[in-house]
């Protein structure tokens, strides 16, 4: 309480005593004498304080009601009851996948700092997408160190509190059994048909603008581990090479786990481009691209292009060109 209010109260006490003898109360309980002694400001404070005291029970009652309401809200959020809280509902529907996705950060020394920064952003994207996925994977970052770790420390200190991720300084070969590993690489002659939930799929943590073409394929062969490329060619007619960015590969894997269908997974994740085609729809697309020719922008040479499957609305989580960089 402020000094003024304290003073006002002690004055009020003495005035009350006086009024007991004088019997000279006004209708609101103030004494005539007291009113004369108190300044206007003090009287105002005193009244405020009296009101606060009078309403004590009312406030208590309201607190009780709010508590009761919260309890009722919690009960109606229980599974089986209708709920308006979509965040809670989404969290409950999450079924983690046993599939492991490893981002292999052992290429740190091959990258310029600007590409390390891009890789960092791609990894942040992978982390965020996995956290909100209905079937999140067991996410691993291996061989974390060097420029990448420095960049993470400098620009996103929060990474040390990341949840549901295993971060290791060790190489993936020391973390996962050799026979469980499948290196994802566009240079592999093997094409992924399905995902095996018992496997750990490795993505090369590299932004190299194809300066180190085939490097991950060579590494996988040297280590004698399985390798495979995504079945892009079966669903997407590429007008450029089919090397994707780390986050796109990661998101395609998440989308496949959700939809159980490669075609849908590709079209959900990869940015749609006008004039490009889904395999089997070349005729339709060439008509569309003729009419759209004036709007057609230069293609990013690192990005596969495609048209959405007929009747499908393509929602893309892609937000910036930078995230596409390979
Ligand atoms: C930008 S690429 C790196 C390209 C690098 N020159 C290489 O040899 O892998 C990033 C990673 O995404 C994965 N990746 C990209 N496109 C892929 C595809 N079509 N199929 C399978 N994995 C792919 C690979 O793991 C690759 O290392």
TrEMBL record:
First-tier enzyme category under EC: transferase
Comp. bias regions, Polar residues: 24-39
Catalytic activity annotation: guanosine(9) in tRNA + S-adenosyl-L-methionine = N(1)-methylguanosine(9) in tRNA + S-adenosyl-L-homocysteine + H(+)
EC number(s) on file: 2.1.1.221
Basic and acidic residues bias: start-end ranges: 14-23, 312-326
Keyword Glycoprotein found: no
InterPro entries from the UniProt entry: MT_TRM10-typ, MT_TRM10-typ_sf, TRM10/TRM10A, tRNA_m1G_MeTrfase_euk
Keywords of the record: Methyltransferase, S-adenosyl-L-methionine, Transferase
Active site: 208
Any GO BP: tRNA N1-guanine methylation
Record protein name field: tRNA methyltransferase 10 homolog A
Origin species: Merluccius polli
């Amino acid at each position: 309480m402020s000094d003024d209010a304290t003073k006002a109260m002690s004055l009020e006490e003495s005035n009350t005593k006086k009024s007991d003898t004088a019997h000279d109360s006004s209708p609101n309980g103030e004494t005539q004498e007291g009113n004369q002694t108190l300044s206007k400001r003090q009287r105002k404070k005193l009244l405020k304080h009296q009101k606060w005291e009078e309403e004590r029970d009312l406030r208590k009652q309201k607190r009780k009601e709010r508590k009761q309401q919260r309890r009722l809200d919690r009960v109606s959020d229980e599974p089986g009851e209708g709920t308006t809280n979509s965040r809670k509902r989404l969290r409950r529907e999450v079924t983690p996948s046993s599939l492991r996705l490893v981002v292999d950060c052992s290429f740190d020394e091959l990258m310029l700092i600007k590409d390390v920064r891009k890789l960092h952003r791609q990894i942040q994207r992978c982390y965020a997408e996995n956290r909100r996925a209905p079937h999140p994977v067991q996410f691993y970052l291996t061989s974390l160190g060097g420029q990448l770790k420095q960049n993470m420390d400098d620009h996103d200190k929060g990474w040390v509190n990341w949840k549901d991720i295993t971060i290791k300084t060790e190489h993936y070969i020391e973390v996962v059994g050799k026979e469980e590993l499948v290196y994802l690489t566009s240079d592999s002659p093997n094409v992924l048909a399905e995902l095996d939930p018992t496997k750990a799929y490795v993505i090369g943590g590299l932004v190299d603008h194809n300066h180190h073409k085939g490097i991950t394929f060579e590494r996988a062969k040297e280590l004698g581990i399985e390798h495979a490329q995504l079945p892009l060619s079966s669903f997407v007619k590429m007008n450029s090479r089919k090397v994707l960015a780390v986050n796109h590969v990661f998101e395609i894997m998440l989308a496949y786990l959700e939809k159980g269908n490669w075609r849908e997974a590709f079209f959900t994740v990869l940015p749609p481009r006008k004039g490009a085609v889904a395999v089997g729809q070349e005729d339709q697309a060439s008509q569309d691209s003729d009419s759209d020719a004036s709007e057609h922008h230069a293609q990013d040479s690192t990005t596969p292009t495609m048209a959405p499957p007929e009747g499908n609305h393509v929602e893309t989580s892609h937000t910036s060109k930078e995230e596409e960089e390979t």
